[in-house]
Amino acid sequence: MLQYQIPLLYLAGGCYLAAVLGYLGNLRLASRRLAGIALALVACGWLAQSGSLLLRWQAAGFLPVTNLFSTQFFFSWSLALTYLYFDLRYRIGAAGLFVMFVNLLLIASILPRDPAIPALIPSLDTPLFTLHIIFSFTGYAMFTMAFSIGVLYLWQQARPTRQLPDLALLRKLNEEAVFLGFCLFSACMLFGAIWAYIAWGYYFSWNIKGVWSFIVWLFYAGMCHAKFVRRWQGRGYAILSILGFAVVLFTYLGIGLLLESNHPLD
């Protein structure tokens, strides 16, 4: 059954590509039908990707997120799920263009990579690791959604268009994405600390990945308070969302690629 993981991943990528084109058409033509088709394509892509994830999980016997291919895979899956939540709740239509384009880049970056599942090291063989990873990447996905909404807020402010949600709704979406991301990432930090104590005898170590994860948490904790400060509302909050995503990217990719860390996933 594992041989179907890559065809399903290509199917998901094709659906996401078609969805991006659909949202682009919706942005130009203001067609509700196109927006509905694009949403259905995102849902189909997510289901195909879920099928691929389940096959990998069944074959491995654990949540397969132990190398760059599998973490980007799970990041993409989480981002598509996050977008579906927001679109089904708020019907944001063409606003899905940017976030699904980001997701398409994630999928395109992993297709050439080796999909082999590395063996699980003993310290990761615990449900706490699974919970840590799930909350980490769903939190990252929410922060990516906030980044996308922040970009759209600035675009809508500079070049208003009726095809995008109004500034009030974009501000609400941005604040909700940041708050939910912060809650999920807080759970990630909590389960990670408990897992570290059981595995190594301490809740926190000063390895660079741990420090930068704490910086991410502090940044978004500050953002949860900044929405109540007038000068940071709206445009300021959108800019903070973009800056926060840069911190997330460095923590997720930059440390593993540019620096040395003793974190188990680096």
List the helices and strands and how they pair.
Blueprint (H helix, E strand, L loop, with lengths): L4 H25 L2 H29 L7 H23 L5 H15 L16 H32 L8 H34 L7 H19 L8 H24 L8
Helix pairs in contact: 1-2, 1-4, 2-3, 3-4, 3-5, 5-6, 5-8, 6-7, 7-8
InterPro entries: Cyt_c_assembly (IPR002541), Cyt_c_biogenesis_CcsA/CcmC (IPR045062)
GO molecular function: heme binding
Subcellular location: Membrane
Counting DSSP E segments of at least 2 residues, the number of strands comes to: 0
The percent range for strand residues is under 5%
The helix/strand series, from N terminus to C terminus, equals HHHHHHHH
Please give the domain count. Answer: 2
The overall average pLDDT, rounded, is 88
Could you give the distance between the termini?
29 Å
SS content category: mainly alpha
What's the tally of helices? 8
Q: Indicate the CATH architecture of the largest domain.
A: Up-down Bundle
Helix percent band: over 70%
Radius of gyration: 19 Å
CATH topology of the largest domain: Four Helix Bundle (Hemerythrin (Met), subunit A)
Q: What is the molecular shape?
A: flat
Low-confidence stretches: none
**Main pleated-sheet profile:** none
Instruction: Report the top-level CATH class of the largest domain.
Output: Mainly Alpha
